[in-house]
Amino acid sequence: MSDILDIIEILERLIAEHERMLKLGNHKKEVLITGKIDELARVVQFESRCISTIQSLELERERQISLYLMQRGIRKETCYLSDLIELESNSDIKLELARCQMQLGNLVKELQELNHLNQRLIEQSLEFVNMSLEEMTAPPDAPTYQNTRKNIHNPYKATRGYFDSKA
Description:
The protein is built from four helices and no strands. By secondary structure, the protein is mainly alpha-helical. Helix content is 72%, strand content 0%. It starts with a helix and ends in a 30-residue tail after the last helix.
């Protein structure tokens, strides 16, 4: 038997995981700014674990909501949190669900903005690395004191300079 309190508990765990992702995102931003590549690999590893936990919690939330709706004789392909708030008759639980909805929405929005900023930082780092590689691998410039008007037909014939001409 699925209870609405089980769904709220899953939502609370989702909020905690998203807060953890936000902390990791802020730490990642600092790592990108300071250029600590070893630390970046560690942060990405923690992020992967956090994403995996969020995915399993989402599946559990969907399963619990489907079960909750089936127990009440409601058939819906997709059910949003706002639909669940409308279906609930207890005002305290409605308030709790609305709080979870607002908190999760704010966290997701904050995470999207932070991810966009981190993406820009990574792109700038890659641009800097590419520019440095191009500078290091570019062919050396030709010296400027070389005569560019060589005699193509007879390379052994000396060309006359300005002071060698007949008066």
